[in-house]
Specification:
By secondary structure, the protein is an alpha/beta fold. It contains five helices and five strands, in the order E-H-E-H-E-H-E-H-E-H. A five-stranded parallel sheet has the order 2-1-3-4-5, sandwiched between helices. The termini are close together. The mean pLDDT is 93.
Amino acid sequence: MSRILIVDDENMNLKMAEFILKTKYKDIILATSGGECLQVLETMPIDLLLLDIEMPDMSGIDTLKKIRENPRLSYLPVMFITASGDVNDVISAKSLNACGYIKKPFLPEILLEKVHSVIGPF
């Protein structure tokens, strides 16, 4: 069974993504900050990280930089889910080997399709 970690500082975004993904994937973990994300990654294996870019304490880009510095986590698949349309964010995400980029608001089918493309069958 695949374990997915969703990180977003907006509770509604977390709950929406969790609701959609739980229709197919059962092991969903939620975090509200980059710091909390890093704590979760230290305590349990994660198969896919869905990460918001714009967060107050530590951006998703900075969170991913810290993940990529950790040899144990450096190959973790990370997909950004964000409202940001900033081209620099897209460039940064690609340079940090993000495996995808989903623009908010998104359709449930798009989220499921993108997740499925990374971690496989439901």
